[in-house]
Design goal:
Layout (H helix, E strand, L loop, with lengths): L2 E18 L5 E20 L4 E5 L13 H12 L6 E6 L10 H17 L5 H11 L3 H6 L2 E5 L4 E4 L6 E7 L6 H12 L11 H9 L2 H7 L1 E2 L2 H7 L3 H10 L4 E4 L6 E5 L2 H14 L4 E7 L5 E4 L1
Parallel strand pairs: 1-8, 3-4
Antiparallel strand pairs: 1-2, 1-12, 2-4, 2-5, 5-6, 7-10, 7-11, 9-10
Length: 299
């Protein structure tokens, strides 16, 4: 028997970042949208914990205990007094190290798959507790849809979305380290008064009404200057997407993937083609939001 769980990527339509806390984290107002790019995590009984991976950029995915899927299995097993003996196979389609929470998605997917495989009967709250222990983005990967994340992003408030939004994601060569981007944010903010993070009422209203043009005008990412400082070439990608007709573009999370909000499916194809032709990205992916969170799809 095996269990397969499908889990989505995310885009941050707003990422407001506060000053560094004493514990090294930052308080956030993080408006997550799950998008229709998915990894699949399959859990199968095994004699020991083993991770395998296939798909684009699979060679960049760690196959040891640092992988969030492995850490999720270990954490769930420890809570229930069992050995984490499972083979977790990740079928990768979310860009790796791209600011779209692919690793976090795999952690949430593995947690749900192992819970079903082992029959641990964990409550939703218990699963969310484990997610929060694993990382700031992991709880949202479990929940999906749209949510406001506060604290370091792990405390979630579901948000209403009034329609379907269309996106193009330009995938860059290589990744960007999230800790490095936050470190650059701190360097750039040194000596300034960093305001307390808060969600934009205009952005939340645009989500609720499904107004793509209004959402485009409210997109914001406080980490974007830091990502551009570390990877100046992203400015050319952002310019190429907006010149091709995107309503707006921004760096996705800590980057280096850039996200472009577009009017509709036809515009998405046009912008994706222009981005590829521009030579400023490795590939361009079309997706919609919101998308469901971690979901068991096969047994």
């Amino acid at each position: 028997m095996s269990i397969t769980v499908r889990v989505p990527a995310k885009v941050n339509v707003q990422l407001a970042v506060g000053a560094a806390r004493p514990d090294g984290f930052h308080d956030l107002a993080n408006v997550f949208l799950a998008v229709s790019l998915y990894d699949e995590v399959t859990a199968t009984p095994a004699d020991e914990l083993r991770i395998t991976c296939s798909g684009p950029d699979a060679g960049q995915v760690p196959l040891d205990a640092t992988n969030l899927a492995a850490r999720a299995a270990i954490a769930l097993a420890a809570r229930h007094g069992i050995a984490p003996d499972v083979h977790l196979h990740i079928a990768k389609d979310i860009p790796v190290a791209g600011g779209m929470a692919g690793g976090s998605a795999d952690g949430a997917g593995a947690l749900l798959a192992c819970d079903a495989l082992w029959g641990t009967g964990a409550t939703r709250d218990e699963l969310l507790d484990i997610c929060a222990e694993l990382g700031s983005d992991v709880p949202f990967s479990l929940v999906g849809g749209a949510a406001l994340g506060t604290g370091r992003g792990e405390r979630l408030e579901p948000l209403e979305v009034g329609g379907t939004f269309h996106w193009v994601f330009a995938v860059a060569d290589g990744g960007l380290s999230t800790p490095a981007v936050y470190g650059e944010f701190d360097r750039l903010a040194a000596g300034t008064d960093v305001p307390a993070p808060a969600a934009s009422p205009a952005l939340l209203d645009a989500l609720r009404t499904g107004d793509a043009a209004a959402l485009a005008g409210a997109l914001a990412n406080d980490l974007q200057p830091a990502a551009l400082s570390l990877r100046p070439s992203l400015a050319a990608t952002l310019a190429a997407g907006t010149e091709a007709g995107a309503l707006a573009g921004l760096v996705s999370g800590s980057g280096p993937t850039t996200a472009f909000l577009v009017k509709d499916e036809d515009a998405a194809r046009t912008v994706a083609g222009a981005l590829l032709a521009s030579g400023t990205c490795r590939t361009a992916r079309v997706a919609t939001s919101p998308a469901p969170g971690a979901t068991q799809i096969r047994t």
